[in-house]
Amino acid sequence: MDLWNSSVILKGGDGVSRITAKGKYMGSNCIVECFLEDGSLIIELNGEFNQEAQTDFETKLKTSPAIAGTYYPPKNSMLAGYSVLESIFFDVGSPPEIEVEGDIGEIPTYDIDDIVY
């Protein structure tokens, strides 16, 4: 299944939770992988840990934008990491391609007819 598009699949996979995003960061095309390690979100840039990129990601994580304009994910969650990668991590004008493996969380919904989110 090809998941490289702007949609997100929140559940699936083999239990390993990982977000992979392709985009332009600091002027260069790159692949960013995001995962939880010892309760902290870690990113790897092109398969390697990069402290400067990690610090930038952590700074942006503190103000992670709402998903779909209405839901603010818990801090330091995979959903917050997704929000940062989707919205503010990559260079302006470089929309990322994002793939999600595993369960990164759930956006709460209400079972109410005709509700608009």
User: What is the distance, rounded to the nearest whole angstrom, between the alpha carbons of the first and last residues?
Assistant: 28 Å
- The mean pLDDT is 86
User: How many helices?
Assistant: 2
| Category by helix and strand content | alpha+beta
As a percent range, the share of strand residues is 15-25%
Lateral arrangement of strands in the main beta sheet: 3-2-1-4
Count structural domains. 1
Measured on Cα atoms, how large is the radius of gyration?
14 Å
Largest sheet: 4 strands, antiparallel
Number of separate strands: 4
The helix/strand order is: EEEHHE
Question: Helix and strand layout, with pairings?
Answer:
Elements: E1 18-25, E2 28-37, E3 40-45, H1 51-61, H2 78-87, E4 97-101
Question: Brief overview, please?
Answer:
With 117 residues, the chain is of the alpha+beta class. The protein has helices at 51-61, 78-87, and strands at 18-25, 28-37, 40-45, 97-101.
